[in-house]
Write a structure and sequence with these properties.
Elements (H helix, E strand, L loop, with lengths): L18 H9 L5 H11 L13 H8 L7 E6 L2 E10 L2 H10 L12 E6 L5 E3 L2 E3 L5 E6 H7 L4 E7 L4 H13 L19 H10 L10 E6 L3 H6 L2 H10 L1 E6 L2 H5 L4 E6 L7 H6 L1
Antiparallel strand pairs: 1-2, 1-7, 2-3, 3-6, 4-5, 7-10, 8-9
Length: about 280
């Protein structure tokens, strides 16, 4: 806080710490410039072409009829959900901040829908002669319309928390606002609240409400175990690598949100059922 007071952690760890989890801290992936460049290169790759058409303005407008502030929208390409964002809708203060940030006239974003999310990479994009300004990296204010122009998506699913109140929705958005300005978590370190990755952002925005969600965490390897290591190492070491992954740590993935008993699907894009995540939830 501005006073220097440190708050309790937003997130409580689910899994016991592993050897590789501790190793990750020693390597300090959060601040390792070589790892940061690797993450940027992976996150900045364009999605390979597929047969699914990108979501257009009509489908976005259709979604907005069904979702409410505080809902979570997961999205991606090629039938894969790689990103989560917090739906805000209208917020005059956030709108004014974003208009100032983008150098726009007051009220120029009045017809667009505000979102909060955490991006690893972002840049200005020109579409049909119009420049769509980058929102930045880490937790940012954005509009849904300009986000999908800069980062075209062909699948989306929106979910709401079960049993929540209007106050919970407002609180989740306020919690998200408090995370703005932090850096993107390139170490994908869920239990550290200093930097925030995308699904971590929506989870922690909801964690501090009267209805915190029961999202399923995963022990996810940041890197696959190199095959040559398992051939040259003793069997017990190879077995440990295979079972524990490499730099394995606790993360919240999009399927941990979508398949959670805490949520209901409120809207899905036309091709969302092509996704394994959708089928898992069904």
């Amino acid at each position: 806080a501005a006073s220097g007071e440190i708050s309790p952690p937003i997130y409580k760890r689910d899994f016991s710490r592993t050897f590789y989890d501790k190793l990750r801290e020693q390597v300090d992936l959060d601040n390792n410039k070589f790892w940061g460049k690797f993450v940027d290169s992976q996150m900045g790759k364009p999605s390979p072409d597929d047969s699914l058409p990108p979501i257009d303005k009509a489908e976005i407008n259709h979604m907005k009829k069904f979702i409410q502030p505080g809902d979570i929208v997961m999205n991606g390409n090629n039938g894969s959900f790689v990103h989560g964002l917090l739906y805000v809708d209208k917020d005059p203060q956030l709108q004014a901040r974003l208009e100032k940030q983008w150098g726009l006239k007051p009220g120029e974003l009045a017809n667009e829908t505000l979102i909060l999310h955490s991006l690893a990479v972002d840049e200005d994009v020109t579409v049909d002669g119009k420049v769509y300004k980058a929102g930045g990296t880490g937790p940012i204010i954005d509009t849904l319309e300009q986000y999908v122009k800069r980062h075209p998506r062909d699948v989306m699913i929106a979910v709401k928390m079960k049993g929540i109140t209007e106050a919970d929705r407002k609180q989740a958005i306020e919690n998200g606002k408090q995370l703005l300005g932090r850096s993107y978590d390139k170490g994908f370190n869920t239990f550290d609240d200093q930097d925030i990755y995308c699904t971590e952002f929506v989870m922690k925005s909801w964690n501090q409400t009267t209805h915190p969600p029961d999202f399923k965490m995963s022990q996810f390897p940041l890197l696959p175990t190199p095959g040559f290591l398992t051939k040259i190492l003793p069997d017990r070491w190879s077995k440990a690598l295979a079972e524990d992954g490499f730099l394995h740590q606790e993360m919240i993935m999009t399927d941990g949100i979508l398949a959670s008993p805490s949520v209901d699907i409120v809207w899905a894009s036309a091709h969302a059922d092509r996704s394994k995540l959708f089928q898992k939830h069904e």
